[in-house]
Structure formats: structure tokens, C-alpha cells
């Protein structure tokens, strides 16, 4: 085996000697200057490339990060994506927004009446709904009272018709008398008008049809459930829809027949 030290003694490494040729030295200096000049250009190009990659990968943020990192060191500011969130919120706010009247028209009775007549369909034909809408538009109490009295005098506000329309709407969606009564109360329908509308619907069998529609939907959606789950579902759904269990009794056999399968 060759000893490295012995090999180096017989074959010594020759260090390169500096050239004594002036032309060769000039060429070496020129190459060194060109290399040094090219280095800043290369660094600038690399920085531009990195910046471009970062700009492409980083999502657009409307405002700079101004929040603290918190105790864990990983929380972000609420300004992240604020522009996009504000645009979506603005779109939801504009939908169904009631336009405000000018301040100088807040006490104008004729302007209030004109606005009320134009919005009869949107507000419903009852006093409570009309008062709410006119108040949101910015009219004062005196103008609203005068407008309501004028509409009632001309039979443009019919509480009974409004109540009956709400009853029909609730029945069409399978709701019982308890839910309909709560809805009429929330809409500001007077108690005597509410009682008459519900009594009329009971006499016409409207709530019986609503109970049948409710049970048919419940039977379809609970098929395959065990007895305990079905009864819990029946109890909670009947309560939320305003039906009593006694009113649902005619369809109980059909509701429970799927248990043995």
C-alpha cells in the first residue's frame, strides 16, 4: 500500500507562480473587475425574483398588520381580509334597507301619508307594521299618528284581513294554533282580532289539515328510527310547531308502524 507521505515527498505540489507577462496580468484584472460588477446585478435580480414569488403567494390584504401576537405568539390582527368582509357585509345591509327621509320632512304629514300608501303591501295592512315602517323611515310620532288615523278612516288598514292572511300562511307551512297565535301577537295584532282569526280557522278545519301535513312530514323524516328517538322527535317538533299531542293522535298509528321493521 502506498504511504501518502512518501508519495508527497516524491511528487511535491507545485504552487502556481504569478505571471510576469504584463498582458496576462491585464486580462486577469479585467476579468476580476467584470466579475465584481456583475455581482450587484445578480443580487438585485435574485431579490426581485424573491419579491415576485412572495407577492404571488401572499394574499392581498387591504391594510397592514397592526395587531399584537398575544401570549401564544400566533394570533393575527382582525384587519386580515377586512376589505373583502366589509364588501360582503355591505351587500347584505343594502338588501331590504329602508331609505330614510330628509330631516326637514320628518314632520311632514302629507309626505308620511304618501310613503305609507306606497308601502302598504310591504308593511302589511295592519297598524303595528305600518307604524314600525314609518318610524324606521324617520317620521316623527305626530306625523305617524295622523297618517294611521287617515288610513283607518279610509279602511286601508284592516286588522282582521291581515290576521287571517297570517293564519293561512301558518297553516300552509304546517303550523298549529299555538304557533300562529304567537306569530300574530308578535306582529301586533290585537287580542280580539287574533282570537277571531284563530277560531275561524279551527271551525274551518284549517289546523286539522296543518296537523296532517305536519305528521306526514314527520313520518317521512323519522322512518327507521327506534321508538325512543321517534317519541323525542315528535315531542320537540310538535311543541315548536304549536301542535298538541291530542291533535296529532289520528296519525299516531301510522307514525309508529315502522318500529318493528
| Uncertain segments | 50-95
Number of helical elements: 13
Mean pLDDT, nearest integer?
Answer: 74
> Cα distance, first to last residue?
90 Å
Helix share of residues? Answer: 55-70%
Q: Report the major sheet.
A: none
Along the chain, the helix and strand elements come as HHHHHHHHHHHHH
Class computed from helices, strands and strand pairing: mainly alpha
- Radius of gyration, in Å, reads 41 Å
Question: What is the overall shape?
Answer: flat
How much of the sequence lies in strands comes to under 5%
Count of individual beta strands? 0
Account of the protein in words:
With 261 residues, the chain is mostly helical. Among the domains are: 103-157; 160-260. Helices cover 64% and strands 0% of the residues. The protein is built from 13 helices and no strands. Helix 8 packs across helix 9, helix 8 crosses helix 10 and helix 8 packs parallel to helix 11. It is flat, with a radius of gyration of 41 Å. The model is unreliable at 50-95 (pLDDT under 50).
Please give a quick description of this structure.
The chain is mainly α and 261 residues long. Among the domains are: 103-157; 160-260. It contains 13 helices and no strands.
Essential attributes:
mainly alpha
What does the secondary structure layout of this molecule look like, with pairings?
Blueprint: H1 4-10, H2 22-57, H3 82-94, H4 109-118, H5 120-123, H6 127-137, H7 141-153, H8 159-172, H9 177-186, H10 191-203, H11 206-221, H12 227-241, H13 252-256
Amino acid at each position: 500500500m502506498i504511504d501518502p507521505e512518501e508519495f508527497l515527498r516524491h511528487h511535491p505540489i507545485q504552487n502556481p507562480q504569478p505571471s510576469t507577462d504584463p498582458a496576462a496580468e491585464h486580462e486577469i484584472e479585467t476579468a476580476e473587475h467584470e466579475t465584481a460588477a456583475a455581482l450587484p446585478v445578480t443580487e438585485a435580480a435574485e431579490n426581485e425574483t424573491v419579491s415576485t414569488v412572495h407577492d404571488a403567494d401572499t394574499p392581498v390584504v387591504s391594510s397592514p398588520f397592526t395587531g399584537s401576537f398575544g401570549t401564544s405568539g400566533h394570533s393575527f390582527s382582525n384587519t386580515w381580509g377586512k376589505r373583502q368582509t366589509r364588501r360582503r357585509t355591505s351587500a347584505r345591509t343594502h338588501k331590504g334597507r329602508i331609505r330614510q327621509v330628509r330631516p326637514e320632512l320628518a314632520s311632514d304629514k302629507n309626505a308620511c301619508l304618501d310613503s305609507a300608501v306606497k308601502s302598504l303591501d310591504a308593511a302589511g295592512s295592519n297598524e303595528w307594521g305600518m307604524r314600525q315602517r314609518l318610524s324606521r323611515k324617520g317620521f316623527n310620532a305626530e306625523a305617524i299618528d295622523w297618517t294611521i288615523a287617515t288610513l283607518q278612516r279610509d279602511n286601508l288598514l284592516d286588522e282582521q284581513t291581515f290576521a287571517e292572511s297570517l293564519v293561512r300562511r301558518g297553516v300552509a307551512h304546517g303550523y298549529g294554533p299555538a304557533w300562529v297565535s304567537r306569530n300574530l301577537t308578535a306582529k301586533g295584532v290585537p287580542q280580539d282580532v287574533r282570537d277571531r282569526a284563530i277560531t275561524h280557522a279551527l271551525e274551518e278545519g284549517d289546523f286539522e289539515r296543518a296537523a296532517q301535513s305536519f305528521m306526514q312530514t314527520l313520518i317521512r323524516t323519522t322512518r327507521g328510527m327506534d321508538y325512543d328517538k321517534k317519541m323525542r322527535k315528535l315531542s320537540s317538533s310538535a311543541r315548536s310547531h304549536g301542535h298538541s299531542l291530542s291533535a296529532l293522535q289520528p296519525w299516531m298509528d301510522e307514525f309508529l308502524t315502522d318500529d318493528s321493521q
